[in-house]
Amino acid sequence: MMKTFSLPFGKSTQTVSLDEAHVLYDLHGNHVDAVADEQAAIRQALRHPIGSAPLKDVVQAGDTVAIVVSDITRLVHTAQMLPIIVGELNQAGVKDDQITVVTAQGTHRAHTPEEDAIVCGADMVKRVKIVSHDCRDASQLTKIGTTTYGNDVYLNSHVVQADKVILTGAVSFHPMAGFGGGRKAVLPGVASYETIMRNHAMALTETFGGGCNPKCETSLLEDNPLHDDMKQAAALLNPCFLVNTVFSADGDLYEVVGGHWYEAWKKGCDDLLHIASVPIQDLADITIASAGGYPKDMNLYQSMKAPMNAVFATKPGGTMILTLDCPDIKEPAIFTDWFFRSDMDAFEKDLRADFSIPAFVAFKSHCIFRSLKEAYVVTRPENFDIIRHSGLIPAATLEEAWEKAQKNLPENYKVTIMGHAAATFPVRK
After folding, report:
1. What are the pLDDT digits (tens) for 4-46?
2. What is the pTM (predicted TM-score) of this model?
3. 248, 275, 302 — which closes off a domain?
4. What is the dihedral sign for C-alpha 414, 418, 421, 427?
5. For 60-73, what is each residue's pLDDT tens digit?
6. Which residues form the LarA-like N-terminal domain (predicted)?
7. Are 70 and 190 in contact (CB under 8 A)?
8. Is the same domain home to 105 and 240?
């Protein structure tokens, strides 16, 4: 019996008719209820924390406090969290002029005043000092120790010199560190460029030619050196408190965790894995996946979250079809300049010499595609030349891609559908 499946594609959909006998899984993230009262959830996290006394009991009058927040590239509800955190500090006797907000730029550029207002909120910009971290400015950095991996940890001096440090951010899946949020506010958030590069280089194997380090993968924390190095850096700083948001596959706020900088974050990781992962028993010969439509498939950089999850549902040497609208396919240029490279040896050599997250995402994406027999991209016709240049096969419709792909499938092939692959993590049981 034939069944029609509809996958998001930009602001519309693409459809394909499949024989149900060949469909292995139709995977979706788990539906969960969104937080009804966000302010109440934040206060709950501050006043009834995990592994810690309440925030107002952790700080005391006269303390200088640094609050580390995510930058403009990660709108994780900082503007909702910050006023409540500052309010709790005020109640504990910490005045506004004793509080410094440090935006965790990592290697990103500094904020504009307008971006500070977007991230932190207009009222906070008027009330507290806000500083953009600059990983390359040695005058802003202080060494606090060295990890067991030999990584000298230089951090923003505003953070190091504060009596108390509060970390904020969001728990998310991360293709190198296992999960985002938590200790990432420290490293890479407010670390030096050299400290960041030493840490991120662990996402590659120790020797040239080995490519991506299999220990540094989505959802993996145990025996993940990149994560462990971040954790050690955060432990050297020893923040007094953490507040992190957790979002559902639909982008709704699922919960707010607060308390000890590692224990509270780890609960957020466990909860995210519970709501966003889906169990599977078998791998498919072909996976048909969408990033989830607009804005998740605005460009190739954002869209690559789809194959990075879909690969966990696909047999090695299998086939993948991606529906990616990509109206801004060449943005950001820092990613596409790397993504369009075809010489993988030169790619890896240059990545090791000048590591960056966009470059690594491009490299890892190519490694995924090269592990497949074929990879099709359903996209706009004007994107076809770019897709071909990337070594992928373009198609105007999902039906067209399916017609071509099935010619090279085994007789008893199995198909898995992932309509929101960027937010759905298959876990083989």
Report:
1. 999 999 999 999 999 999 999 999 878 899 999 999 999 999 9
2. 0.88
3. 275
4. negative
5. 999 999 999 999 87
6. 9-204
7. no
8. yes
